[in-house]
Design a protein that fits this description.
Rossmann fold; elongated; eight-stranded mixed beta sheet; about 25% strand; three-stranded antiparallel beta sheet; about 400 residues; 13 helices; GMP Synthetase, Chain A, domain 3
Length: about 400
């Protein structure tokens, strides 16, 4: 996914560090804000994976570090739940002024509670999603007090959360105690999706039930069955992202509709993007989004077909479509076509029919299965027609690739 590194100011004038994840063609049909979990940062793995799923559905995601965390300015010990909510409102105003007002709010853990509170102050938002969010912030206050019992007696304490040490003040805990989540949830007035795991040992599954009961329709619940609170497993965050993207389309609009309306038919280029690490590559072909990758055996992650798989698939698809067109025109009883292909490289000297006699050449084996009550003559003719598909001609003709660097 493409991205922009950005900064904006919170209500106190402190700089908050942000990243705007964008679709490959950098033309989002909607914007979202992601509020990370308590003491996490915008670069937390679960946040990254969910953002990637949303950008594939043409939803841009602004993720930022709350005050005093990550690369943002400020002292975390001087912040509170209300400052998190204020940071979210500032993020929405920043998006609105520089890009477009956010339609989707997403929050993980305490960030989920924050988006439920902030939604009333972000009128552009149409949908809210929470992941492992607490329904009652007093339970979070009690948890912090157990981790640092001197918070209430001494006014502050060092608390270790997720392997990191933070200074928590009594004012932070007291503010959590005073927060009225139930009222905010009842008055949400937006579509709500609740993710929670029954195995969550930080925020119990009963919180999801309380949020669901308090919320008005439209509301939905998705169980993250095997996940922990932080969605440490990559598969859990990828699943949450895919479901969230599909759900959000119902409430913030589908990118396919806008693609059909806005697509520039004079610019029919395919856009391909590979990130900083690994070989996973995103492909945008018109309104269609694809993934390419390399097998694990050669250093890839195996999340999509290889480039040669796509090349051979193009030949197979073209072959099958060409046969379908020809049989339809002749009104032959061709019920279906199955094309099986395999690509390999061989030494030229091992190919008696090849013009090249040195080096290695590419060989594509193509097997065609024609289903239907065709006679022998019809089958033989369709076999001849297979070689006439446009991609077949391209592979057998001289191909020139003109390359230039974009300024």
């Amino acid at each position: 996914m493409q991205f922009q590194k950005l900064t904006f100011r919170n209500a106190a004038g402190q700089r908050l560090d942000a990243r705007l994840d964008l679709p490959m063609d950098e033309k989002p049909h909607a914007y979202a804000i992601f509020a990370h979990c308590f003491t996490c940062t915008k670069n937390f793995n679960a946040v990254v994976n969910i953002s990637r799923a949303l950008t594939r559905d043409k939803i841009a995601v602004l993720r930022f570090d709350f005050t005093g965390l990550g690369e943002s300015e400020g002292d975390f010990s001087n912040t509170g739940f209300s400052s998190n909510v204020s940071d979210l409102v500032a993020a929405a105003e920043f998006l609105k002024s520089g890009f477009d007002a956010p339609k989707l709010l997403i929050g993980h853990s305490l960030g989920g509670a924050a988006v439920l509170q902030a939604a009333a102050s972000i009128p552009s938002s149409l949908a809210v999603a929470t992941i492992g969010a607490p329904a009652d912030l007093s339970s979070v206050a009690r948890f912090l007090s157990r981790e640092g019992p001197e918070i209430r007696s001494k006014g502050e304490a060092r608390v270790t959360l997720a392997g990191r040490s933070f200074r928590i003040r009594k004012e932070f805990v007291d503010e959590l105690d005073r927060s009225n989540m139930e009222q905010s949830i009842r008055q949400l007035g937006k579509a709500l999706l609740i993710f929670h795991s029954p195995r969550d040992t930080i925020v119990g599954i009963e919180s999801a039930g309380k949020i669901f009961q308090a919320a008005r329709h439209p509301k939905s619940f998705i169980s993250l069955d095997q996940a922990d609170h932080l969605l440490s497993s990559r598969s859990d965050s990828l699943y949450a992202g895919a479901v969230l993207a599909a759900w959000a389309g119902k409430y913030i609009g589908s990118p396919e509709d806008r693609d059909r309306e806005e697509r520039d038919l004079t610019d029919n280029r395919i856009v391909v993007h590979t990130g900083q690490t690994g070989y996973r590559t995103e492909i945008l072909a018109g309104a269609h989004r694809l993934i390419a990758d390399e097998p694990v055996a050669v250093g890839g992650s195996g999340t999509g077909p290889s480039p040669y798989d796509y090349l051979v698939s193009a030949l197979g698809a073209c072959t099958s479509m060409t046969l379908r067109m020809y049989a339809d025109r002749k009104e032959w009883p061709l019920e279906s076509i199955v094309v099986r292909l395999k690509h390999r490289k061989v030494h030229a000297r091992d190919c008696s029919e090849c013009e090249s006699k040195s080096g290695r050449i590419d060989v594509v084996e193509r097997e065609i299965e024609l289903r239907g009550p065709l006679d022998a003559e019809q089958r033989e003719r369709l076999l001849e027609i297979a070689d006439r598909c446009p991609v077949h001609h391209t592979l057998h003709s001289e191909v020139r690739v003109e390359t230039r660097l974009k300024a």
